[in-house]
C-alpha cells in the first residue's frame, strides 16, 4: 500500500465516518470507538462525526455522536420473527447497499477503529461482518472516500468466502495499522501487501483509567466468558463450553478457600449466564460463605469494567478486552484466552508464562501460575505500568499520523516515514 503525500491543511470541516460493530453489547468494541472519538474531538473539534453501526442510539447516548443503523431491517426487528424474518433480511441486503453507499459518499474519511474486524477467531459467517466491511471499502473506492483501518486485529481464516471478503476489504483500504505483529503477519500470509502497513497498540490503551480502589483485603477479579470455541469448533461447541465452565468453578472455589474475596465479571452481555452459573455453584458448594466474599455486578461499558478491576489485586480473565483492561490498570494477570491474540498481548506486556487456552484449561497449572503472580505482584505491577505507558505514547504517534495523512493537517508535503515493524 503506497501512502500518499499530504495535501496541506483542510479548509472545510472534515466529515468523518466510523464503522464497526458498535452499540451491540460488546464493550471491548465500544472502548475502541470511544478512544478514536476522544482523539477526534480533541484534535479536530470542528469535524462532523457519524458512526455506521448496529446500535446508533446507544452510541449517541454514550458518546454524543450521531449514528446510522448498519442494517435497514433493524427497525423492524421486533415485528418479525421466524420465517417472516428471512425475507425481511433478504430485502434489507439490497436496501443496505444503497443506504451504505449514501453514507460512505457523504464522508471524506471512514475510520474503522480497532476491534477484531479482520479476525475469524469466534464463530462468524461471511455474510456478516466480512461482507459489511467489504461493502464499505468497495463503495469508498468508488466514491473516492479514504478508509483507514486503525489498530485492528486480524487472523488467517480457512473459510474461502470470509477470506476473500476480508482480504479484498483490506486491500481497498487507504491506511492500515494492526494492534499487534501477529495481525500484521496474518494479513501478509493472507496475501495483503503489508510492506507499508503499521503496527500500533490496541486503541484501548489510549483510554483514561480510574484510580486504584483496593482496600487491603486480597481480592481477585475473575472475568468469565460464554466460551464455545472458535469458527472451526461448531461441532463441539457445547462440550467446550461445559468443560470451560466446570474448570472455572473449581478454580473459583479454590480462590475462596484460600481466604481471598472474588469479584466475578462478564466480558459482554452474553457472558452473564456463565457468571450466574459460577456464582450459584460457589454459593451452593460453600453455603456459609459471607456475601461480601463474592461479588458479581453487571457492566455495561469498558469504564465500568475498569472501575471493577481497579478494586482487585490480581485478574484472571478470558475475553481479550478483559485481559487488556487489567493490564492497562497494571494488574498482574492470568489469561485464560480463546485466541492467539491473548498470548501476543501478554507477551508484549512481559507475561508470556501466565497464559492458558480456554479450550484446554489445566486447573492445577492455573493454581501454580496464580500463586506465582501473587508472590511477584509488586515487581510485575511496575513492569506492566511501564509498558502500558509506552503503548499510550505510541498511540499518540498514530493519532498525529492520522491527522497528517487523512485530515490534511500536515505542515509540509513530505511523505511520512513508516515506523519499523516490531521483531
What would you note in describing this structure?
With 423 residues, the chain is of the alpha/beta class. The chain folds into two domains: 15-199, Rossmann fold; 219-385, 3-Layer(aba) Sandwich (Rossmann fold), CATH 3.40.50. Helices cover 44% and strands 14% of the residues. It has helices at residues 27-43, 56-63, 85-105, 129-143, 160-172, 181-189, 237-257, 272-285, 302-309, 320-328, 340-348, 363-375, 377-406; strands spanning 15-19, 48-53, 66-69, 109-113, 146-152, 175-178, 198-199, 219-224, 261-266, 294-296, 314-317, 333-337, 355-357. The strands form two sheets. It has a seven-stranded parallel beta sheet. It has a six-stranded parallel beta sheet with strand order 10-9-8-11-12-13, with helices on both faces. Helix 9 packs across helix 10 (320-328). 45% of the residues are buried.
Low-confidence segments:
1-10, 410-423
Per CATH, what is the topology of the largest domain?
Rossmann fold
What's the CATH class of the largest domain, please?
Alpha Beta
Q: How would you sum up the major sheet? A: 7 strands, parallel
Structural class: alpha/beta
Distinct helical segment count: 13
Query: Which term fits the overall shape?
Result: globular
Architecture per CATH nomenclature, i.e. the level-2 architecture of the largest domain: 3-Layer(aba) Sandwich
Rounded average pLDDT: 89
Kindly state the number of beta strands. 13
- Count of individual domains: 2
* Strand content range: 5-15%
- N-to-C SSE string, H for helix and E for strand: EHEHEHEHEHEHEEHEHEHEHEHEHH
Order of neighbouring strands in the sheet with most strands: 3-2-1-4-5-6-7
